[in-house]
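tool=predict chain=A
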Amino acid sequence: MARAAGGLILLHRRPPHETVSGDETAVYRAIAGESILLAGGGRALLLQLAHPAVARGVAEHSRFATDPTDRLLGTVGYLYTLAYGTDEEIRRVARRVGGAHRGVQSSDEPDAYDARDTDLQLWVAATLYDTTVVMYELTWGPLQDEIDELVYRRSALIGTTLGMPAHMWPESRDAFRRYWSEQLATLDVKGPARLVAQQLLRPARPQPRLRPILPLVRIVTAGLLPDRIRIGYGLAWTPWLASQYRRRLGLLLGVYRLLPRALRTLPGRRWPR
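tool=predict ok
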């Protein structure tokens, strides 16, 4: 057995990226196409909303505050399109995103925003890339350096499809880590973000099909967040909760690894595009 980030125990099993050729697109698909990405969706969304301008734009121009699962599923669908979609399907989603962002702006302070602001697009893309790698490595163990590099280069597409100029994607993984650390140090979780987090993790009227998994969603989402961001959202965290997080996530990943690849990748391959 091997030990991954967070002290989780991994079974000896061949990781998906080792079953494909070294082609950048195929390797990215093997990693970003895994449905375990869904378990990291809450993490990515709460990281995005920790940026006050993103939170305000979402709160004022979407149904996210009342139905956060809609954006959660939309975000995962976006990543699956980048992993499995044809060039035409990716162009189509780029046009759809561009159209949806048109007019999503306000110059009123504080926290003026514009959905076409390339700095905000970079941050959203960064949260999706980082969460993809975090979830994959928790499940299958650390990526080899050359594979990590392939995935990083391909992940620039997450931002450029949103409208971000290609040159804004940090030039190397080291540069990305510096950018990531700087952003985490300056994020400020405000009221609109906390309101959405409450509705996502403790909805007043949860959908019946989601109700049984909400306790797992809450503890996994909280556990995956960086400490500073978890504190900003006011999410309780104790040694007991930390141990429950490790136990429950370990069980989830253990069961997931036993699933055949065809089943693990079914959501991504069948997701509407």
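Residues 1-6 have pLDDT under 50 and may be disordered. The radius of gyration is 18 Å.
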